[in-house]
From TrEMBL:
Gene3D superfamilies: 3.40.50.880
Pfam families to which the protein is assigned, alphabetical: DJ-1_PfpI (PF01965)
Residue ranges occupied by any DJ-1/PfpI domain in the UniProt entry: 28-225
InterPro entries the record matches: Class_I_gatase-like, DJ-1/PfpI, Prot/Nucl_acid_deglycase
The protein, known as: Type 1 glutamine amidotransferase domain-containing protein
A Gene Ontology term for the protein's cellular component: cytoplasm
GO molecular function term, any single one: transferase activity
Length: 230
């Protein structure tokens, strides 16, 4: 197969205005990127502002940085792309077959309400392209309305990092809002795995979402299947 994927990453590197670091959960990008690279897809990496995407230090830990992550860390060309991401306002949605919103807690500050990210998601969704997210990437869908005025998530089955997982991660008091509750209030049919941190993904037509960092491969497989069907 040949096609083109737009990966979206965060620019935000701390919990709010604190000095506690966060950013992109690197495996959520590499696990997805690896699959589409293996299938010959072209891929771009963009962010709300363009430029550097900081990496969440915890995603590089002994038990979180698997082979995929370690190999990309040693790939200068790949890491340079995270230092020089495209600006979301400069890309054209029609150039891509799918858009993938990665996670990491940084997204809670710069994905939600970003007009360029919202426009990309809206245009691709309304034109039948694949719109996908994993973990906190679904913060981009909060408050996002379609051209009809309806919330994009209204009546849609979906998933994303759960409030229980925020508690288990020890950051529930540091995040700016409860994203699980918020999307439910906006009409989403939120689903989650029976146990926290298990791989879990949901497909509702051209919307594909994954619950947590361990779900990136499942999301990638679902996106690839959806593109194959098209």
């Amino acid at each position: 197969m040949m096609g083109k994927i737009l990966n979206i990453v965060t620019n935000h590197g701390t919990y709010g205005d604190s000095d506690k670091p966060t950013g992109l959960w690197l495996g959520e990008l590499t696990h997805f990127y690896d699959l589409f690279e293996a299938h010959g897809f072209q891929q771009d990496i963009a962010s709300p502002k363009g430029g550097r995407s900081p990496v969440e230090p915890r995603s590089l830990g002994r038990f979180t940085a698997d082979r995929s992550v370690r190999q990309r860390l040693q790939d200068p060309a790949f890491m340079a792309r995270l230092e020089h991401t495209l600006s979301a306002g400069d890309v054209n949605w029609s150039d891509y077959d799918a858009i993938y919103f990665t996670g990491g807690h940084g997204t809670m500050w710069d994905f939600r309400g970003d007009p360029h990210l919202q426009q990309l998601a809206r245009d691709m969704f309304e034109n039948g392209r694949i719109v996908a997210s994993v973990c906190h990437g679904y913060t981009v869908f909060a408050d996002l309305r379609l051209s009809s005025g309806q919330y994009l998530l209204q009546g849609r089955r979906m998933t994303g990092f759960s409030w229980n997982e925020e508690i288990l991660a020890g950051v529930a008091k540091q995040v700016p809002y409860n994203i699980e509750d918020l999307v439910k209030q906006q009409g989403a049919h939120y689903e989650k795995a029976r146990l926290p941190l298990m791989s879990f993904s949901v497909r509702d037509r051209n919307l594909i979402t994954g619950q947590n960092p361990g779900s990136a491969r499942a999301v990638a497989a679902d996106v690839l299947k959806a593109l194959t069907e098209k």
